[in-house]
UniProtKB/TrEMBL annotation:
PANTHER family found in the cross-reference section: UBIQUITIN-LIKE PROTEIN 3, UBIQUITIN-LIKE PROTEIN 3 HCG-1 PROTEIN
Source species: Poecilia reticulata (Guppy)
Membrane topology designation: Lipid-anchor
Localization of this protein: Cell membrane
Identification of the protein by name: Ubiquitin-like protein 3
Length: 108
């Protein structure tokens, strides 16, 4: 029997986006189409949703096309709720804040 332990992290949902969509567009779309099974992670505003791709926070104006993602393939990104982006020079002091993380599976 394959029993998966309940986890509040790592829920995956597939969305369809175009290369012209920016990280901010994606955050808003996910917010507007919040999956039912992500209810625990529901946030109050799309403005605090941040996309992470290959370990890097994406700024809101970065488009998918600029990331040179393979077209027509699934690309896994992480979605986290963060009030502010971590400053490169802050020595991990923000790491104490608890963030709910969900996998956001983006398909072009």
């Amino acid at each position: 029997p394959s029993s998966h332990p309940p986890s509040q992290f790592g829920k995956t949902k597939e969305f369809l986006f175009s290369p012209n969509d920016s990280a901010a567009d994606i955050a808003k779309h996910v917010y507007d189409n919040w999956p039912m099974d992500w209810e625990e992670e529901q946030v109050s505003s799309p403005n605090i949703l941040r996309l992470i791709y290959q370990g890097r926070f994406l700024h809101g104006n970065v488009t998918l096309g600029a990331l040179k993602l393979p077209l027509g393939r699934s690309t896994v990104m992480h979605l986290v709720a963060r009030e502010t982006l971590p400053e490169p020079n802050s020595q991990g002091q923000r790491n104490r804040e608890k963030t709910g993380e969900s996998n956001c599976c983006v398909i072009l």
